[in-house]
Amino acid sequence: MRITDLTVHDVRFPTSATRAGSDAMHTNPDYSAAYVVLETDADLAGHGLAFTIGRGTEVVGAGIRALAPLVIGRSLEGVTGDMRSFWRSLTSDDQLRWLGPEKGVMQMATAAVVNAVWDLWAKSAGVPLWRLLADLSPEELVSTIDFRYIEDALDPDEAVDLLRVAVPGRDDRVRELIEHGYPAYTTSAAWLGYDDAQVDMLVREALAEGFRHVKMKVGVDTAADARRAETIHAALGGASLMMDANQVWGVDEAISAMAELGRFDPWWIEEPTSPDDVLGHARIREAVAPIAVATGEHVQNRIVFKQLFQADAIDVCQIDACRVGGVNEVLAIMLMAAKFGVPVCPHAGGVGLCEYVQHLAVFDYVAVSTSLEGRVVEWVDHLHEHFVHPARVSNGRYLVPTAPGYSIEMHPASLEEYAYPAGPVWDGLLR
Ligand SMILES: [Mg+2]
């Protein structure tokens, strides 16, 4: 099978109209996707996307187009036979790498393309992505990872050993997840732009739906956060509360805000400061313990994750499926997390992130971590209807995906209707 063409779609949803998705830093997001389709000479296409929040989606689209010559004309077998070299050909192109390296727009573009290749591989094998990964041997999995810059923390032999230890019981864990699902938590109840009454109602609804973990946005006004946390905490009973500041604070501000908000007993504070500030996270973690520190949705590559682990800077590793360079790099991060004993709780929500990360979480439990303790996957209940095989959550747990591929293919009608700026949804709304 040969990849014959690459097409890019700029797809945007006017979510800012309801303030769904609003947080301390992103007050009016229009959830969007730089979406790519890899056409082939067979009856299959690979689909991938990088999640964006409105303006700038066209920039990521340009990044994806810049990668097209590195992909078009390649055979799928040639790519999957040496995934490590394919991945490095995208991230280390001798001219494009100047734009990063391995960070920002080009890294997101890489993620969209790499994930489309994995989608194509899983579809051609007729299995969901998690199953494709779980059926690879430890050596095959490790052969997809580029260890450049991380070998001082984890080398290929150690990675193989970590995976080998987790081989026994893989089938039992698969059966367990198929029967019971993977624990989810909800972020949908407490966006920053929602008023207190709305939050109270949504938290109660979430508990009735079976969620045992609820996350609230914080960070603009600590007194208002405390008032809202009190309402949520009272409604939660024994369920867990998490807080997410979306990078709004400096290090000292984070420490003093959490001294205030700690009385509501949050499990974790997420993105308390800049995602690049490894030492800042370490300082915050030490100061706010036993509150856990979580980050990852804006951590740009495996190298920064490596430092977060080495510096004991985080308690929770929030991998993102399309912030770093796609499945290959996520595998590197998951294996480092396993080595350093940090649980992986994937970042989701957005457009397509729940669809993506359900596969990564299932694979993590089945083949890497072998534990569900302290592990939950984010869930945001919107925009799933645009996907051919949407993620499904029931009774507070993700149901294991069954359709072949990476679950990221959108309906053609959604791609047309929400196309930016020409789609009918954007008539009269252009900003
Ligand atoms: Mg977050």
Structure in words:
The chain has two domains: about 5-125 and about 415-430, Enolase-like, N-terminal domain (Enolase-like, domain 1, 2-Layer Sandwich); about 165-410, Enolase-like C-terminal domain (TIM Barrel, Alpha-Beta Barrel). Helix content is about 40%, strand content about 15%. The protein has helices at about 55-65, 75-80, 85-90, 105-125, 130-135, 140, 155-165, 170-180, 195-210, 220-235, 250-260, 280-290, 300-310, 325-340, 355-370, 410-415, and strands at about 5-10, 30-40, 45-50, 180-185, 215, 240-245, 270, 290-295, 315, 375-380, 395, 395-400. It is globular. The relative contact order is 0.15. The structure holds magnesium ion (MG).
Question: How do the helices and strands line up, and which of them pair or pack?
Answer:
Elements lengths: L2 E10 L19 E9 L4 E8 L4 H11 L8 H6 L1 H9 L12 H22 L3 H7 L2 H5 L13 H10 L4 H11 L1 E5 L9 H13 L4 E5 L4 H15 L3 E5 L6 H11 L6 E3 L7 H11 L3 E4 L6 H9 L5 E2 L9 H14 L12 H17 L7 E3 L13 E2 L2 E2 L13 H6 L14
The structure holds magnesium ion.
Which features characterize this protein?
single chain; 2 domains; globular; alpha/beta; TIM Barrel; binds magnesium ion; five-stranded parallel β-sheet; 16 helices; four-stranded mixed β-sheet; Enolase-like, domain 1
